[in-house]
Batch of 2 targets.
Target 1
Amino acid sequence: MNEYIARVLERLERLYPNEPEYLQCVRAWLDMIAPAVDRPEYERLDVLSRMVEPERMFSFLVPWQDDQGATHTNHGYRVQFSSAIGPYKGGLRFHPSVTASVVKFLGFEQTYKNALTGLPIGGAAGGADFDPRGRSNREIMRFCQSFMFNLYRYIGSDTDVPAGDIGVGVREIGYLYGAYKRVTGRAESSALTGKGLTYGGSKIRQAAAGFGTVYFLARMLEHQGEELAGKRIAISGFGNMSWGVCRKAAELGGRVVTLSGPDGYVYDPDGVVTQEKFDFVRDLRSSGLDRVEPYAEKFGVTFYPGKKPWEAPVDIVIPCAAENEITVDDAVLILANGVRYYVEAANMPASADALKLLRLSPKILTAGAKAAGSGGVAVSALEMVQNSLRYSWSRREVDEKLRGIMSSIYDASAAAAEEYGLGYDLIAGNDIAAFKKISEAMIAQGL
Ligand code: GLU
């Protein structure tokens, strides 16, 4: 690592010693881009320090009342990470694990995810340490309204455009958008994305992250002279991301054989490939139960309580749930099972050591979330385009555009890896290509 990079990292570690997720993602990124930090102006203009810290960040109280009249007080956050190539853009996560460190890590990743979509969007993230599990619709609505009353001043279609993430789906976006509209008095549709189809949402948005990951994977397979047909895939989670992966993989002849939740995982050897199964998974998620076992009961397959799906015998692994769900032991298991492709849909799903193990193994090809996981935000950006055109594209049109975007992210990643002599390292390639683009925009716009 060169001296300048070491200094940037030291400073960050000194400033934020208690923010493990944030430091983890920055460390990994600095490692990846090191070969491309090759111009004196990066240091002269201190580009790296300006890239690893958010331009602005704030937190706010979110007081709300439950159905029994008891008052709860949660913490809301928004981190406006980078506006180098467009308005801040990124999701909101409602989950008890949300902290300043988590939103900073998400905002950082989002900036690099967004950069190569080809659409002019900067990076952001936010959320609250609120647990939506078991809450009624009315409680969710009150929470979203309170959240938005504190956030609305700082967002807008040319400023910062929030969307969903874990715990924030189309229902929550609806309540957030309704509150934004009421308080500002403007039907400014592209102030939020992930909206419902009747009021400015884009077709495919809910499934886009999963679809995009499979399109990216398809390019990797093509590079190896293979196809998805007949391949078995292990995934984690059973939310939007997982659903989209199941659907698109099935369409291309592949077979997702696992789903997981906090209670364990199910193994379905026939694959989640029928409409009945897709519908069941969607209903299971929206039931708010957060358990995947009912899938096993319904379709007569095995449920493994308390276990992770990485022990299943498959060809491809796609983590779709949350950060750090793959440990070194899991990575060892994945390699021992002869898995050939590891493609991240969720943000930073592997620990630093687990990712190192997978990335450096010649037996498996790897792609990171900043590339393969960017389909969701890509369609969010397409939603903004449709809103400003006052128009709505067909499913086929959006799907085709998404496929094109994923393909160009793949091409940019492969080309950058090649250019820096890194072979087929798509993770480093993607980080480098995004770094080049963002730093160029920053330098062009001055200090
Ligand atoms: N958290 C989501 C993601 O990257 C949503 C971002 C957005 O649509 O703005 O995937």
Note: The two ends are 26 Å apart (CA to CA).
Target 2
Amino acid sequence: MSSLFGQANGDDPKVPPARRMPRSNMKDRIARLRYVTLVFLSGCVALGLVTWLCLELGLEAVGAESLYLIVIVLVSLLDSFAVSALLSLISVFCLDFFFIKPIFKFQMQFKDDMPALITFLIASLAVTALVRHIRKLGEAQSEQDLLLDLTHDTVIVRDMIGEITYWNRGAEELYGWTKRDAVGKNIHDFLRTRFPLPLVDITDTLVRTGRWDGELIHTKRDGTEVIVASRWSLQRDANGKPHATLESGNDITARRRAEELLKQSQATSLAEAQKLSRTGSFGWDVASGEVFWSEESFRIFEYDPGVHATVDLIIQRVHPDDRARMRRLIDFVTDTRQDFDVEHRLLMPDGSTKHLHVVARAASDESGDLRFVGAIMDVTATKQAEQQLHEAQTELARVTRVTTLGELSASIAHEVGQPLSAIVTNGEACLRWLGRETPQLDEVQSCVTSIISEGRRAGEIVHRIRTLAKRDTPAKMPLDLSDVINDVVILTQREVLNHQVALRLKLATGLPPLLGDRVQLQQVIINLVMNGLQSMNANGNAPRELTIESRQDDDGHLVVEVQDTGTGIEPENSKRLFDAFFSTKPNGMGIGLSICRSIIEAHGGRMRASNNAGRGATFQCSLPPLQDAA
Ligand code: ADP
């Protein structure tokens, strides 16, 4: 490579095959010997001819010397120094024999003729060595040109004023200009180079470090542009002075375009994915207050993408009921530099509500300023689905309650029938007391008081039944667990009697209140009582006992337990009891326990079932007291 910059070195790879024989190769050695012999013989013939010509023309020794020298130079162009040296020696003998007196004898005047012959010999050897050196330089240069032409990369050499001095075949192929077109031109004008940095900066780096690489845009002969990955190296002369720059480069236009396309398609896919998943992304630079939104984020907030996003703009959209909470959150996370994960609502200009789930990670930029990056998920559809599911569950629970009431109808009829017959009996007695000659008004008063009290009792039962059957939205209020159990006992006591079951109540007094929906909790206990009664249907002579207990456990939870002496739970069913539609009863729907569990969990509690040590099973619900629930 260095010979491109005016020096030649290295071996002689471009010598014809016959002349660079590896010693090991016998065939090549013979061919080489043959060639050298041929050249030598040709040289001898040429010397003979020159001698004959000189004798014919009657030339003196000086004339013959010149012609011999020409022959020697020509032969040295063809072969090695050894052949030329040998021919020089032969020429000396020929000069002595044919041209130095006495002629045709190998005799001479040492003093007069010897210096001339030695001068001739030295001159011929020097010329031969020089010719050989020049020839080798040329061959090395051609060899390097050939090698540089083999590479697909462009290799261009320019001097310090930018004039092209070398242009390889790769450059010809890429740019469409031949070596002849290019050499001598100013490279940057010729290729209309566009630099990634100011040229002075690039030159500065090149001079300082001896190298530069970067991407350049060049214009080809046909006017199209190419992006070239270019590597520059500075060449210095023996004194360290820069004297040329070698630029090698390769065409990366296709790669860059493919990358560009990939980038575009990734950006498009990302935008598309955000759109499909209704998830936008954002960045928030706390120090400057700048907020960066993806296209989808603008869509979620229903702001024009041209709008300059700020925290205030976001707060404007936040639902008024969530605004104070969001402000507190923003203050908190900016103070503590914490990640956050929050759900809040937006109130849109058309009055609709959107539910968002926002997750963000706190990070610091190079200068330590706080930034948040995160995702905004529009979960409105999920929330609506959850709401619908909740409504469906509430309705299912109501329907189940009504079904249970159907099962309790005999007991209910009895409960309502008893006060009614008492009312009738009291009414008749009233009439009798009034029909006396002297109406017994104090008796009448006592009967009417009784009628009113029985009427109230019947009214209360009807009210309870109506409440259970009503389509009310769940409403939580402070409740006494034992009160709720008592309500259930009134509604189910007849059913208990019908099943010939002994009911035992172990109700704690003075329990702390819990926060709950009365109707829903009644429903849970009714369900557990009815299941307990049914489990004892096949008890035969075995005792039929149902115990309902309320208490506060060691953790402070309020517990209601319904224990029976029925069949107990089959071990293989224990894991599925609370699954919807699991039933072992011929006409069972299998949703009672699943509703019970969802009601208890909605109250922040837990439900479990286990077999008793003796007969039967115990179902237990534990609920947090009002204090904890709040
Ligand atoms: P269903 O009463 O319609 O079967 P539930 O969800 O109330 O639906 O009960 C599911 C199943 O749990 C019952 O079929 C029964 O196998 C079992 N199970 C419920 N309560 C008891 C109990 N007290 N004793 C034994 N098994 C019970």
Note: The first strand starts at residue 154 and ends at 159.
